[in-house]
From TrEMBL:
It is an enzyme of class 1 (oxidoreductase). Keywords: NAD, NADP, Oxidoreductase, Pyruvate. Belongs to the D-isomer specific 2-hydroxyacid dehydrogenase family. Its EC number is 1.1.1.215, 1.1.1.79, 1.1.1.81. Residues 99-270 form the D-isomer specific 2-hydroxyacid dehydrogenase NAD-binding domain. This is Glyoxylate/hydroxypyruvate reductase B. The keyword Cytoplasm does not apply. One of its GO terms (cellular component) is cytosol.
Length: 307
């Protein structure tokens, strides 16, 4: 059986399916020239030096949709497939975005703490919150997940604006400039890929354009937002609220962000439900098994689609 190098975690279901076709090797015990397949995830990716040492590598199957931790251009040049798990997590990540937005608007954490601490009993009702209805929501990255977020916001009667590299055939309002969109929206939801082209595109200027009544939601990658500028804007009141599922140096979250009461913070759980992780794991394994069978894959990243 061919050697599969495992990077990151694996569920029992995935392991059982993979063991029927591969010998699974761990990072501390493998022979580089014997590895033909790698299984990893969006967070761990694969170290470029490690990838270069795997001279017989044919496929890197990543469990997750974002693949900025994998050098897909180099892989494609070497004729190595990179696959990921698009679509099966769209609804879940969109739910996480909406959840964060609602939690910010309705001060879910503050009011939960209000009840638990007994303050309701001693001080009466808490201050009013803001309605999440009828807001103008700017989506940064109207791709597979971005579209799903727009659809999920319909019951809140959101007006949808979007910024992406290209204009889409949709009724939502397109902005070719991110700062201009931030000026016009109440909520900015980030759902682009990570990587050099989106590195800190949500900068001081964009955050200040979003403004004191604005809410930033990030369910993409921590690298998309300038975290230092974000902290300063939240501290000074230049930005109102932030709901964050992703951070620059996960799992390290700056104390300053944790100290702020106008943030809702999640440990990168956008797709982390039993159901969605099972679907992602199944697709990750399906790509590996299909490649073994007929040298094709189900869901290559765009850089490798021509292989
Ligand atoms: O290529 P376009 O015009 O459709 O724009 C894509 C947009 N995008 C950008 N927008 C502005 N500036 C950029 N430099 C830039 N680069 C990409 O992000 C597209 O509208 C969206 C990405 O959509 P999909 O490729 O369909 O990705 P999906 O499945 O929605 O996932 C997005 C990301 C993942 O890469 C993970 O980082 C995260 O969500 O879970």
């Amino acid at each position: 059986m061919p050697d599969l190098l495992q990077i990151g975690g694996l569920t029992e279901v995935m392991k059982a399916r993979l063991e029927s076709a591969f010998t699974i090797r761990q990072l501390d015990a493998f022979e580089p020239e014997k590895i033909t397949h790698v299984m990893t995830n969006g967070h761990d990716g694969i170290d470029p030096e490690l990838m270069a040492s795997l001279t017989n590598l044919k496929l890197i199957s990543s469990n997750g949709v974002g693949y900025d931790a994998i050098d897909a251009d180099t892989a494609a040049r070497r004729g190595i497939y990179v696959t990921h798990t698009p679509n099966v997590l769209n609804a879940e990540v969109a739910t996480t975005a909406v959840l964060l937005m609602l939690a910010c608007y309705r001060e879910l954490l503050r009011d939960d703490a209000y009840v638990r601490s007994g303050t309701w009993d001693t001080e009466g009702n808490p201050p009013l919150t803001r309605s999440a209805d009828n807001q103008t929501v700017g989506i940064l990255g109207l791709g597979r997940i971005g579209h799903e977020i727009a659809k999920k916001l319909a019951p809140w009667n959101a007006k949808i604006l979007y910024h992406s590299r290209t204009k889409k055939d949709v009724t939502y309002t397109y902005y070719d400039n991110l700062t201009a969109m931030a000026l016009d929206c109440d909520v900015l939801i980030c759902i682009t890929p990570g990587g050099p082209s989106t590195h800190k595109i949500v900068n001081k200027e964009v955050l200040e354009a979003l403004g004191p009544n604005g809410t930033l939601i990030n369910v993409s990658r921590g690298s998309v937002v300038d975290e230092t500028a974000l902290i300063e804007a939240l501290q000074s009141g230049a930005l109102g609220w932030a709901g964050l599922d992703v951070f620059e140096a996960e799992p390290n979250v700056p104390q300053a962000l944790r100290d702020l009461s106008n943030t809702v913070l999640l440990p990168h759980v956008g797709s982390a439900t039993v159901e969605t992780r099972a679907a992602m794991g199944a697709l990750t394994v399906d790509n590996l098994l299909q490649h073994l069978k007929d040298a094709t894959v189900i869901s290559p990243v765009p850089e490798c689609a021509h292989l």
